[in-house]
Amino acid sequence: QVQLQESGPGLVKPSQTLSLTCTVSGGSISSGSYYWSWIRQPAGKGLEWIGRIYPSGSTNYNPSLKSRVTISMDTSQNQFSLNLNSVTAADTAVYYCARDVWGYRDGYFYYMDVWGTGTTVTVSS
Amino acid sequence: QSVLTQPPSVSAAPGQKVTISCSGSSPNVGNNYVSWYQHLPGTAPKLLIYDNNKRPSGVPDRFSGSKSGTSATLGITGLQTGDEADYYCGTWDSSLSAGVFGGGTTLTVL
After folding, report:
1. Which of A19, A45, B22, B110 is the most buried (most CB within 10 A)?
2. Proportion of chain B in helix, strand, coil states, percent, rounded to 5
3. pLDDT per residue as tens digits for the range B53-64
4. Does residue B109 or residue A32 have the better pLDDT?
């Protein structure tokens, strides 16, 4: 049973970098069958896809966040990470990591089948 | 502003049926498969439907999904108070090369 757990500071100052780690247990992050994603939910708002990484290092990012986001992977620790720089109060949210299933048949199929429990990050001075 | 459009809220009585719509466009819903998630406050979102209409193991057959053109629909029959949650549709957007979600729909079981 694969499980994901987010960790990182709960409070980040404006203009600084938000850094979170997702630790994967019960399975290898480098298996090659899955992508690994970050999603967030600001208070009172819906889910927002941030980006994802494949074991090869290939990444995709939300165009609206692309200039500030970096997602990386540490296969030796079975972890992947999110860095979001130049944060503002608008980046205050619950951040989730998730496992992606993605591919193409007669259209792209894409879904997150395993999620972490989420971690709250507040941007405030 | 979400790429996919959902009604903000729906409601129905226990035992009844409800549908939640998800409207998109050609690069996303129109040409790719849709998934649905149930999200209760304070918990991790849960995959309910994938590939438009498939249910993961453990998801009751009261939940169903369908797609036609650039719109998808989640159906829930035999409503229970435990179904009260936020529901999100999601898919891949081929133009953005990114995952996209709907704005979410809050289900109230009256």
Report:
1. B22
2. 5, 50, 45
3. 999 999 999 999
4. B109
